[in-house]
Amino acid sequence: MPTSPPCACNSIDELAAALQAKGYFADRRLATAVFLALKLQRPLLLEGEPGVGKTELAKALARVLARELLRLQCFDGLEQREALYEWNYAAQLLHLRAAEGTASTDALEQQVYQPRYLVRRPLLQALEAPAPGALLLIDEVDRADEPFEAFLLEYLGEYQVSIPELGTIRAAVPPVTILTSNRTRDLSDAIKRRCLYHWLDYPERERELAIVRTLVPQAPQQLADQVAAFVQQLRTGAHARHFQRAPGIAETVEWARALVALDTVTLDPEIVVDTAGILFKQRDDVAALDSALAEQALQAAGI
């Protein structure tokens, strides 16, 4: 549970500074989107390539706001009971056996369908969280199917859910809600209309350099500069066409840590090839980063 005092975040600049203090460097557009989501109490949908920092934003924001982070990881075949609630059937059965013959069928039914027999999942936990409320991360919502999207509409639009046996449960404190999508498929217009939207792109060189310096403080300044410049070449330079998927921010940081562990002073083709498996997670991408391509990218980065 968060223990640090929450940030009041009365301005975009204050919010951006608070996120940076937690190790997350948001540009002005992203900080504006988050600020408006907080002020308007609207869900925020973040779309972007894997590794650009969508999930990390939710984690950092939870720390800034001193709210409990609840995470619903979406996947193909995700069902409502895994996202909202299910009944504790074993406890209900024990109650029925203990009360057998002491009450009518209707009375027994009312007894077993009580909140104490609910197994609460992330959506319900978020709605019932006490002040200051929770931050709900609905991660990779594009991996779920369309019926699950339809199920989410009531929650996203009104911060409430309907449980047949208990009725409608509304949030006493609206949860901060962030949805992420890698855009493996298009989400429905109904989902998008209920959310504020932001496309999160890879950071420019200076912002990525600031991230590396903050998260890998033991890296020499020259090495951090070279790491940021080289990764930018792999993403946006003439060599980007050789790769199926560009390295994410997490890969940049992990690569910098690995280079420090290897006592690397300056980048060269040999060390790049030897550590390519940290930058890329696809076999073809690792194979594409051979010595010749590494040397060309290093030269293009001014190294």
From TrEMBL:
The record's section on SMART domains has: AAA
InterPro entries according to UniProt: AAA+_ATPase, ATPase_dyneun-rel_AAA, CbbQ/NirQ/NorQ/GpvN, P-loop_NTPase
| Taxonomic path | Bacteria, Pseudomonadati, Pseudomonadota, Betaproteobacteria, Burkholderiales
Gene3D superfamilies given in the database record: P-loop containing nucleotide triphosphate hydrolases
Q: Which domain of life is it from?
A: Bacteria
Pfam families per record: AAA_5 (PF07728)
- Specify the AAA+ ATPase domain's residue ranges: 40-209
Mind telling me what this protein is named?
ATPase associated with various cellular activities AAA_5
Among the GO molecular function terms of this UniProt record, one is: ATP hydrolysis activity
Q: Which organism is it from?
A: Alicycliphilus denitrificans (strain DSM 14773 / CIP 107495 / K601)
